[in-house]
Amino acid sequence: MELLYKSTRSENETVTASQAILKGLADDGGLFVPTEIPVLDIDMDTLAAMSYQQVAYEVMKRFFTDYTEEELKRCIEKAYDSKFDTDEIAPIVKADGAYYLELFHGATIAFKDMALSILPHLLTTAAKKNNVKNEIVILTATSGDTGKAALAGFADVEGTRIVVFYPKDGVSPIQEKQMVTQKGANTMVVGINGNFDDAQSGVKAMFNDKELEASMEKEGFQFSSANSINIGRLVPQIVYYVYAYAKLYANDEISKDEKINVVVPTGNFGNILAAYYAKNMGLPIDKLICASNDNKVLYDFFRTGSYDRNREFILTTSPSMDILISSNLERLIYRIAGSDATKNKELMSLLSGSGKYEITDSMKTELADFYGNYASEEETAAVIKQIYEDTNYVIDTHTAVAASVYKKYKAETKDETKAVIASTASPYKFARSVMDAIDNKYDSMGDFELIDELSRISGVEVPQAIEEIRDAKVLHDTVCEVDEMPAVVTKFLGM
Ligand SMILES: *Cc1c(COP(=O)(O)O)cnc(C)c1O
């Protein structure tokens, strides 16, 4: 049976999976959601024996029903190959009383690779299926990790171009170096004078600009999005929760149907929403633990039912979570409103107007699966040090936010349900903050000296992604104001 997608903001646009992936965002500014969540009607013993690629196919075929078996398998094969430094793709490490699901073994050593290594293939396949002749222009706002992962995924992919906007002073030095050294004639990287939310709003405004769309069309271009608002990113993220559960079961860490908790360091709410979808497919997940850093807008939301972005934007050592408008939350709001597009639209216009909204009591009761909390900068650093000293395992700052929140959760609830912590970045990507947390004696070391020291103390080899940028040349140096973003794009396209 064909699964269709509709917008979270109106009833009148129904599209196929491939069309939803092509468009990224619905015409009314809403996000595409499946009209129902498919059931994971496959035995756990069967899943337990499968490779990552096989699990990926089982999950994705239930969502992307207009792709043929051959098309989907080819996309999966091209995505999850030797770009990953382990055949397991997403290995699990047991440490300090939890299971760390390492989602950082791809080309750019952050979890964004899990979805962005397949999105270009899903997208170019979708273009063929829908007879799109235009060149696809990917516009992306990044808090650091999406940008590089998208660039790596789309570089030199025929029929595509990609422009990435990042907050000039809001990413780590390694993140910035990874992006500005990107090769590929179809790539452009731009720093903006503003924060991530400014970059994201600027990109959204371009998507909604009908005049720009018309002049692009004339020149043979159309926009699409690689941000986690694209359903083609969300679905591949469901895969690793199913895979992790199946591997824990295969390795006798859990019994059949035993419920697990999932802890996710959260920014744009994409990763944890994927876990929520996995749960709704029937995967035995109990609590979804949403971990925030000092930008704790989601913690306040889960506590009070009120979402309020009117607050100071705080730069932290987990920059990929420095976000005050979590775009994917809209998909959850829509669902807990009983798939009511009118109600959702009303709340989203409050958000873009006054910057806040409040959900009803009945919607609040639908949030019982979620637990939200946050970790301060001190708590984040402390947990990195503690886990390193107790177990020799080094985690990055984002994963540490989750680890810290998980400890708070256990202390508060006494819930001893086994937990999977989404480990979203390699510590190498945030080496400075990680090493500072472990010992302040590393203060005086240079960036790459620090990398070598991290390798020495952790016993983990320096990843290829880091080696690559040691001596790489800077190829992108454009910086612009937020209101100059459209001009930068049209210039790049030669319009
Ligand atoms: C993007 C990112 C996050 C946040 O994920 P969301 O899906 O935006 O909630 C957390 N950690 C790292 C390392 C990331 O790159």
From TrEMBL:
GO terms for biological process: threonine biosynthetic process. It comes from the Bacteria. It holds the Pfam family PALP. The modification N6-(pyridoxal phosphate)lysine is found at K112. One of its GO terms (cellular component) is cytoplasm. Belongs to the threonine synthase family. Gene3D superfamilies: 3.40.50.1100, Threonine synthase, N-terminal domain (3.90.1380.10). Residues 5-80 form the Threonine synthase N-terminal domain. Its cofactor is pyridoxal 5'-phosphate. One of its GO terms (molecular function) is threonine synthase activity. Keywords: Pyridoxal phosphate. The keyword Hydrolase does not apply. This is Threonine synthase. InterPro entries: Thr_synth_N, Thr_synth_N_sf, Thr_synthase-like, TrpB-like_PALP, TrpB-like_PALP_sf. Its EC number is 4.2.3.1.
